[in-house]
């Protein structure tokens, strides 16, 4: 039996210990770059399973568009794209994981929105994918437009902007519908494939993933309406301007390199390029890497290891992949799209 | 007792005083730690620019919840959305408790049956349900409903205007108004009056031995309030018939597959546990009680109902309470199969507002509050059926 005296001592000690532990932990706010360098790898939050964006291939290696964004940052910081540990996060815990420092970057299909930016202690990097919410229905229902979906049941995933966008779209039209919300995306897809719902809704890029998984993709048709703007952007904690710059300019390097025609294959030749902006981008000239606290060759390292934006897109999402997406708004500004990198000067 | 017994040093050696002192210190320590953690969290959240507080509960939710018992529109507040979630949680848990108790009692008794086939079947039932995680069963029941039943467009009309499809069972319903609620309340009131009359009559009979013809009074007590209410408010008995629309059946009342799968899943898995509790309770009643009851000429069914079960209840109630509690907490698995319970609504809210700490706090408070309510009720019932030593 524990003696009363020792019990008091034990209680007092543990109390002091726990208070000390709690106050010590968050006291020192170290810069993310220092933390990452000390750790030797970047912690990157990604979607658990999203074909094209983040999935494990048959060898168990994580691949996809969102994954490549983290690999680019890793190449910038470590001159090695593979110093990344991937943390699969569902929609419910993703922002808490960034807030609490569980991940250094959240590279997931998450929408940049006002409230998230202003009230969650988060900062957003550049938009890496311009998406919009769409609806998909079985072709045998003969639905031509989302406005015909009165009284239909619609399958949704929780915890995204999806639910509110749908309501915002239908409410002014005075259309009633039934929502069936699933936590688990497998159940959500299956409920739709089994006819529990007449339509399914999510971002158009994600609809393409769902359709790609269907037994017969031709039996499903994506409806023409895009009912929302979904600018998907990587997310980091607020109040670390240096880390934010690193993320921003890693993404801009991907975009800028495509604009200049620099690819994974020809980047070595471009080191001899006469174009002063290319020289600064690839670290031949200027101290751009040093300004970020990185090696001057950071831009070269990114392109050498992951390629430019266009290559990343084509490899993961493009017409030759299972998803078969076209560039659409995700085309360079010079070709009528929305992608635009500020000048490297 | 000597005069100096209460002086400071002596007091410290007083066992009773020390026991209380330690408890006070422990509680104070925990409270202090809690306060410290709370202030620390608030400070860090403020530093990180993360919004805090429960103010968001009064903002417009802007999302649809398709199966609610209370009135809820997307233009209502987050607070009301969460309330709708709580009501859904309680609704499905309450029905599951009722179903699980009835099933558990039947299966528990069947396990002790002298018919080997029946006993074996009950044994299989219990083992199959107790040894597989509930979540898998939920997926199974849901998949069975959604894949084995036809789609709404090919819904089976099993009776006129009664449709069965993978969107659930749709039946004609009464167009409910406040007048109907009044009549229903009057009916309940009449029922209570009837019970009171009946009890008094029985007490009177036991006391005096006179059998007075009280039944007309009882019938009157039961019928008068609802009949009066009917005449007073004159409700309109309009029927809402389900009809096939382009996508869904519109109108009528619907038993949806998400609710049904959850209800069946929770009730069946809990009933297996309850069956074992019932079996142990019955086995705890000595054989002599059976023999004595038989000697009095009671048949087996009556012996079970009047002699054995009342005594077994003493053993049954405490573990039954924990079964109910875990059933209620397991209802949070609803989110896996799309039933909008508290967890689902809160998750959506947390994601739209980003206020996770508050959301989790609401969760914990609600589950804690409801769990304690169940415990308190069951403890009260337990003390009622406990063996009264005279």
Measured as a percent range, the helix fraction of chain B is 55-70%
Described by its quaternary structure, the protein is: heterodimer
| Helix content bin of chain A | 25-40%
Strand % of chain B is: 5-15%
Order of helices and strands of chain A: HHEEEHEHEHEEEEHEHEHEEEHHHHHH
CATH architecture descriptor name of the largest domain in chain B: Orthogonal Bundle
Strands of the widest sheet of chain B, in order across it, are: 1-2-3-8
The parts of chain A where pLDDT drops under 50 for at least 5 residues are 1-5, 17-28
Strand order of the largest sheet of chain A: 10-9-11-8-12
**What's the total helix number of chain A?**
14
Please write the string of helix (H) and strand (E) elements of chain B.
Answer: HHHHHEEEEHHEEEEHHHHH
Q: What is the approximate shape of chain B?
A: globular
Return the structural class of chain B.
mainly alpha
Measured between the Cα atoms of the first and last residue of chain B, the distance is: 38 Å
Supply the helix-strand structural class of chain A.
alpha/beta
Number of strands of chain A: 14
Count of DSSP helices of chain B?
12
Descriptive notes:
The complex is a heterodimer of chains A (345) and B (390). Chain A contains 14 helices and 14 strands. Chain A has 345 residues and is of the alpha/beta class. In chain A, helix 3 crosses helix 9 and helix 3 runs antiparallel to helix 13. Chain B is built from 12 helices and 8 strands. Chain B folds into 2 domains: 2-47; 78-175 and 238-385, MetI-like (MetI-like fold), CATH 1.10.3720.10. Chain B is globular, with a radius of gyration of 28 Å. A 4-stranded antiparallel beta sheet of chain B has the order 1-2-3-8. In chain B, strands 4-5 form a two-stranded antiparallel sheet. A two-stranded antiparallel sheet of chain B has the order 6-7. Chain B has 390 residues and is mainly alpha-helical. In chain B, a hairpin with a 2-residue loop joins strand 1 and strand 2 (162-165). At the A-B interface, helix 1, helix 4, helix 5, helix 6 and strand 10 of A face helix 2, helix 5 and helix 11 of B. Chain A: Belongs to the bacterial solute-binding protein 3 family. Chain A: Keywords: Signal, Transport. Chain A: It comes from Microvirga terrae. Chain A: Residues 1-29 form the signal peptide.
